[in-house]
Design goal:
With 202 residues, the protein is α/β, with parallel strands linked by helices. The protein has one domain: Aldolase class I (TIM Barrel, Alpha-Beta Barrel), CATH 3.20.20. 33% of the residues lie in helices and 17% in strands. It has eight helices and eight strands; from the N terminus they run E-H-E-H-E-H-E-E-H-E-H-E-H-E-H-H. It has an eight-stranded parallel β-barrel. Helix 2 links the parallel strand 2 and strand 3.
């Protein structure tokens, strides 16, 4: 694996922009800004809390017009927003929940496959793929460097996925914890360092 991608918590919290900035400064290459119930103004306010030198590392899941407005790195397609803006030049990604979907959307810049393990942040959102199915998907080229593992990913699981062909891992709960706040900055950075170390070793 080569890259760690972080997804924001679904809701905003005090100090979030400052912590995101610290993560970028520590080496986070890509952050998916996902706040499905937040309005455009709230998303824009969060972006404003982050230095513009990091905007190219941010991918948004909603309010795609902000991607061009702030020269963000990409958009992530979903049921709410199934199409990228016209003439968009950033990356276009999408989440997949079956091996077949990986083939259907292989023309996009990169894909998430989930859930791989029992979700840390979503109770009841469990393991969706038998291990042999993942191995077969790797052998057939469906899992490749453009596909990222999502769902229950922590440092130990990153090491477990070594050899399966994923380009990297996507984390949410393993990074942010249950209910993050500004006072949790040190713990979040410690977890980030553990995750980055696991990526380097996998």
């Amino acid at each position: 694996m080569k890259q760690l991608i972080a997804i924001t918590t679904p809701t905003c919290f005090p100090g979030e922009g400052k912590i995101i900035t610290s993560l970028f400064e520590a080496g986070l290459e890509r952050l998916h800004l996902r706040k499905p119930d937040a309005g455009k103004e709230i998303i824009a306010a969060l972006i404003h809390q982050i230095p513009d030198q990091f905007y190219s590392r941010i991918v948004i899941h909603d309010h795609f017009s902000l991607a061009s407005e702030y020269a963000l790195g990409g958009v992530h397609l979903n049921r709410r927003n199934p199409n990228a803006p016209d003439h968009f030049t950033g990356s276009i990604s999408r989440s997949c929940h079956s091996i077949q979907e990986l083939d259907t959307w292989k023309s996009l810049d990169y894909l998430f496959l989930s859930p791989i393990f029992q979700s840390i942040s979503k109770e009841g959102y469990g393991n969706g793929f038998p291990w042999h199915e993942l191995e077969e998907a790797t052998e057939r080229g469906f899992i490749n460097p453009k596909v990222f593992a999502l769902g229950g990913i922590d440092a130990s699981h990153i090491r477990q996925l070594k050899g399966l062909g994923f380009g990297g891992a996507v984390v949410l709960g393993a990074l942010w914890g249950k209910q993050p706040g500004e006072s949790d900055s040190r713990e979040i950075m410690e977890r980030f360092n553990q995750l980055i170390t696991a990526i380097k070793e996998s």
